[in-house]
Design goal:
six-stranded parallel β-sheet; 47% helix; alpha/beta
């Protein structure tokens, strides 16, 4: 069986970093780990080609070669997901789809024309698909009634990926999260009982990447890396030895809940394993909103103290923030800006709240009659998909203003500087590898644009000299994060234009609806 594994395009987003990736000649931040894993689960006598459309287009030869096309997608990839199904069907190919988007909204995937829906987690449903194919069936929907034991998951087929195209590689240790945040779809997709691979299993994946020549950063894509702290400790204790024996070939990054700050030993272990950054779901500094949305883990300790503790340990903090929670008081956007500035978090993902399919929020809003239809989008350029408890125009304007302030070039530069002054440095000394010409050229470009061309010029040099004086071992990571501004300068303009356009359309629609109601009322009164 000849299988074309296809990953649809992402729209421009907070994490797409096109302008920054151009500096180092990369095409995308992360590869489609899910499809590489699918290729490992399917029969190994089958033939595979993997095409990430964020890297390149499918060739005519590849379309001609394929017998079956398998497409995996997240909700944000919806438009190209549908387009690629249509393209495959136009060419007479059997199409199978899976991943978070089809699993969450299978009716939409079916309506798009897919022949097979391989839903839920592939360890259980891909064998059902294989059996159907071997029987000669040409359609079917496959669902699981339980969660798989991920200790049986094989090493992803990393060799199918174009390593030169990606800035980071991806691996996964665990699935699921023990918390119950109302708006989060992770517990819907993967459950509240974190399931982990064995330490030996994950180290075998790292061995494979090492053998294939990967020597850059790896993102541990767990939605909450510390969800099962016992198993994480077991992994880290073995990973520490693995890193020492191979002279620290990778930097690692991941996502975690903010209660990581309560565990100094765990943070220390992560740093000793060459973790250098962590993404935290902070959401909002408003404690009432956190409690209302059931994110109780963020209310146990002062958030600012937790962020500082993690940073001083040596883990650069990235964080997510959301505006639009029920009961939110006016000025939420400004409070988020103040918190980000107070804690000096350089990279603050900021979005308007979206109700995701099958979440507690989705079902509650549906019951209250507040959902706008049965679809959703999860980009930073979309208005909310439900009726909030305060005026949408107020929330949208606070959001746009806050996003604009957060990513003002001077503000971002100074916030990044303060963060890296605070950032702890590991006691181990990972080897200093000679930089490639591409990286040297990228750093020179950042220095030229931010240190000569823009109004940030004087502050850029002051800050850089301050880093060399007060925390010199972080200078390269500091300049890398400074380079992210190349993306945000453009992206904050995109956010402003698209949100304001959608808001104008919404307001016009609301005005038209009110006018129609008034006219109908006058006609009824006249009659």
């Amino acid at each position: 069986m000849r299988v074309l594994l296809l990953y649809p395009l992402f729209p421009k987003s907070f994490w797409s970093f096109e302008k920054t990736l151009e500096l180092v000649g990369r095409k995308a931040m992360l590869p489609p780990l899910g499809l590489a894993t699918v290729a490992a689960i399917l029969p190994q006598e089958w033939e595979f080609k993997l095409v990430d459309r964020n890297v390149r287009a499918v060739t005519e030869a590849e379309w001609e070669w394929a017998e079956v096309v398998i497409i995996s997608a997240m909700i944000v990839q919806k438009l190209d997901f549908i387009a690629q199904i249509e393209e495959a069907k136009r060419r007479g190919k059997l199409v199978a789809v899976g991943g978070p988007y089809p699993t969450a909204l299978p009716k939409e995937a079916n309506a798009a024309g897919a022949d097979f829906l391989i839903l839920d987690e592939g360890e259980l449903t891909l064998p059902m698909f294989v059996e159907a194919i071997q029987k000669g069936e040409v359609s079917g929907t496959f669902r699981a009634t339980e969660k798989p034991d991920v200790t049986s998951t094989p090493i992803p087929r990393f060799e199918l990926l174009d390593f030169e195209a990606y800035d980071n590689m991806s691996i996964q240790f665990s699935r699921g999260c023990p918390f119950q945040c109302e708006f989060c779809d992770i517990i819907v997709l993967y459950g509240r009982k974190p399931r982990t691979k064995s330490p030996e299993q994950l180290l075998a994946e790292l061995d494979r990447l090492y053998e294939l020549g990967w020597r850059r950063s790896i993102f541990m894509v767990d939605d909450n890396f510390i969800g099962n702290k016992r198993n994480v400790r077991l992994l880290l204790n073995e990973l520490k030895t693995w890193m020492i024996e191979r002279n620290y070939p990778f930097h690692l990054n991941t996502e975690a809940s903010i209660d990581l700050a309560q565990d100094p030993e765990l943070m220390k272990l992560m740093v000793e394993c060459n973790f250098n950054a962590v993404f935290l779901g902070i959401e909002t500094p408003d404690e009432e909103s956190l409690a209302f949305t059931k994110k109780f883990q963020n209310t146990r300790d002062p958030l600012s103290e937790s962020v500082e503790a993690i940073t001083r340990t040596g883990l650069r903090v990235m964080a997510g923030f959301i505006i639009g929670f029920d009961g939110e008081k006016p000025g939420a956007g400004e409070r988020i800006v103040r918190f980000v500035e107070q804690t000096a978090i350089p990279t603050a993902l900021f979005s308007m709240l979206q109700a995701l399919p099958d979440t507690g929020l989705w079902h509650r809003l549906e019951k209250e009659g507040r959902l706008h239809g049965k679809t959703t989008a999860i980009n930073q350029t979309n208005l909310m998909n439900f009726v909030p408890t305060r005026p949408i125009e107020t929330i949208a304007r606070e959001y746009v203003d806050a996003f604009w302030q957060l990513y003002d070039p001077m503000t971002f530069l100074n916030r990044t500087y303060r963060h890296f002054l605070m950032l702890g440095v590991p006691k181990h000394h990972a080897p200093t590898r000679p930089p490639s010409w591409v990286n040297v050229k990228a750093l020179l470009t950042v220095c030229w644009r931010q240190g000569f061309v823009r109004h940030t010029r004087w502050q850029f040099w002051r800050n850089l000299f301050g880093i060399f004086r007060h925390n010199p071992r972080v200078w390269d990571a500091y300049l890398t994060v400074c380079a992210h501004s190349e993306h945000f300068i453009e992206y904050r303009q995109i956010v402003r234009e698209q949100i304001e356009a959608q808001l104008a359309e919404y307001m016009a629609s609301e005005a038209g609806a009110k006018t129609k109601i008034h006219e109908e009322a006058r006609e009824s009164a006249a009659a």
